[in-house]
Design brief:
This protein is about 60% helix and about 15% strand. Helix 1 runs antiparallel to helix 5 (about 210-285) and helix 4 (about 150-160) crosses helix 5. The chain has about 290 residues and is of the alpha/beta class. The two termini are about 25 Å apart. It folds into 2 domains: about 1-25 and about 250-285, Helix Hairpins; about 40-245, Pyruvate Kinase, Chain: A, domain 1 (3-Layer(aba) Sandwich). The protein has a 5-stranded mixed β-sheet, with helices on both faces.
């Protein structure tokens, strides 16, 4: 019966694991709605900011802002990488990291240096192991990320771009499509990509007060901070969705494994009973 005892121990172990995965699934299911509400509440603001930026791109300014100027030679590129602080969310982080490594190799093959700014403990742990340059790191944003927690990280990148230490800046995060789909997304932040505004907008212009460049610098900085903040909310919603699905799959696999172990246990128990009966019958026949 030693084999049966081992099987019973395995069944209890899998049942305990199933309790944990089921609890995590319910927690993520309760949090995903709040994360979606936060994400959708900021989308209109980000969309309107993007529209105004498109208008300004067609304005007739006396001088061009550094954030809108395309560099002739690209020597160094930066990536703002937004990942999760916790694991158990399937391949959400690893899928994005694999695509990032391919993107890094593409730039490095062209002789371009790569530097990163990471948001989230998992990103910091992953890229430190690979000896990738990390200029700044932020973690523990919690369930309600605040813009104030991201401003310092974004400022490091913007200052590097202004001073010529960066020639291009990208934002990497998981875009929330729906509960079952999260897409690893790479957006170019700097220089600002050309907008898709209507041709009529090229005739628009503004009256700037006190100064066009001063106002534009403040506005573009706030715009870029908004994009990073929106990306952190998208990634948070993606995290809860991915964890809910991963834990549901783990619970389903645990149920299947328990059924298989119970079947093996019943077969072993039946074999032991059959053997005992055979021994009793054989002993009675010998007498």
């Amino acid at each position: 019966m030693s084999g049966s005892k081992e099987i019973v121990g395995k069944i209890k172990s899998v049942q305990n694991t199933r309790k944990v995965t089921s609890a995590l699934e319910m927690v993520s299911a309760s949090k995903i709605r709040k994360a979606q509400d936060q994400m959708q509440a900021t989308r209109p603001y980000a969309r309107m900011m993007r529209q105004v930026i498109g208008h300004l791109a067609h304005a007739n300014l006396e001088e061009e802002h550094p954030f809108t100027t395309e560099r002739e030679t690209i020597k160094r590129v930066g990536f703002i990488i937004i990942a999760t602080d916790r694991g158990l969310c399937g391949g959400l982080n690893n899928n994005m990291f694999r695509k990032l490594l391919a993107e890094f190799r593409k730039w490095q093959d062209q002789g371009v240096e790569v530097t990163t700014v990471v948001v989230g403990r998992k990103a910091a742990q992953f890229f430190r192991r690979l000896n990738v340059e990390i200029s700044a790191a932020t973690q523990d944003l919690g369930e309600q990320p605040r813009l104030e927690d991201l401003i310092g990280t974004v400022k490091v990148c913007l200052d590097d771009y202004r001073e010529g230490r960066l020639d291009r800046l990208f934002l990497c995060y998981n875009h929330f499509v729906n509960t079952m789909t999260q897409k690893a997304t790479f957006d170019q932040l700097l220089p600002l990509p050309p907008g898709d505004d209507e041709p009529m907008l090229q005739y628009w212009d503004y009256i700037y007060e006190p100064d066009a460049m001063e106002l534009l610098d403040e506005f573009l900085t706030r715009y870029l901070e908004t994009l990073v903040y929106q990306a952190s909310l998208e990634n948070l919603a993606s995290e809860h969705a991915a964890r809910m699905v991963a834990m549901k799959n783990a619970s389903d696999n645990a149920n299947n494994l328990i059924d298989e172990l119970k079947l093996v246990y019943n077969k072993a128990r039946q074999a032991a009973i059959t053997q005992e009966i055979s021994e009793i019958v054989g002993g009675a026949a010998a007498v």
